[in-house]
Design goal:
- By secondary structure, this protein is mainly alpha-helical.
- It has 2 domains: 64 residues, Helix Hairpins, CATH 1.10.287; 116 residues, minor pseudopilin epsh fold (3-Layer(bab) Sandwich), CATH 3.55.40.20.
- It is built from 8 helices and 3 strands; from the N terminus they run ααααβββαααα.
- Bound molecules: manganese (II) ion.
- Manganese (II) ion (MN) binds next to helix 1.
């Protein structure tokens, strides 16, 4: 059995219509996400060959390390991305998540603006993310290049928006702003709040205790 597996979508392909089209979701999940899962498993298999050959080829090692980080991170972010959306989503967060957002950003609208801007202003491919930063004990916005660059290793992504062209181009063509605006109509704040609770309880002090 492969180490990494493509998770099923938590809804039908067309469940997020009209904000995210069935064909766009199908291609994105079944082809693009699947390719990162395959790439991650392929990288692990290539590491086996690398070791069998003596674990001494530095050029090969660099390539494999890049491939592993890129594909594993791509698999993780997409696995977080699908449940970050739901039919009849949208609205506003509430409770302690909302309080943490207001404390960090001033308002939910400001978070949406900053996270949207982080996603639309990427140079090339990447993601916008709301993350839990355990040392500060705060939520922050991160602009992630590719799947893994510009990302602090301790941060736990709570909400991720795919800013790669493959995420929206079939439906929105070059209108990336429209994709981001549409995302807010299907965002799954309940899932984000559950991740927030989990991150705070498991990551708030344990990392620094390990330091
Ligand atoms: Mn994607």
């Amino acid at each position: 059995m492969p180490t990494y597996e493509l998770p099923d979508l938590p809804y039908e392909y067309g469940a997020l219509e009209p904000h995210y089209s069935a064909r766009q979701v199908e291609l994105h999940h079944d082809k693009h996400h699947a390719a990162y899962v395959k790439g991650a498993n392929d990288a692990l298999a290539s590491f086996d060959v690398f070791r069998q050959q003596g674990a001494s080829d530095s050029e090969q090692l660099r390539g494999l390390e890049r491939a592993l980080a890129f594909n594993v991170s791509g698999h993780l972010l997409h696995s977080l991305f699908w449940p970050s959306m739901r039919p009849d989503g949208g609205g506003e967060p509430d409770g302690e998540l909302k309080a943490a957002i207001v404390e960090a950003f001033g308002s939910v609208d400001t978070l949406k603006k900053q996270l949207g801007l982080a996603t639309t202003t990427l140079f090339g491919s990447g993601w916008g993310a709301l993350v839990w930063e355990p040392m500060a004990g705060k939520v922050m916005v991160q602009q992630i290049y590719d799947h893994q660059a510009n990302m602090s290793p301790a941060n736990l992504p709570l909400l991720v928006i795919d800013g790669w062209e493959h995420a929206y181009y079939l439906q929105y063509e070059n209108r990336k702003d429209e994709w981001i605006n549409a995302f807010w109509n299907i965002v799954n704040w309940e899932r984000v709040a559950a991740r927030f609770d989990h991150a705070r309880s498991s990551l708030s002090s344990s990392l620094l205790a390990m330091a």
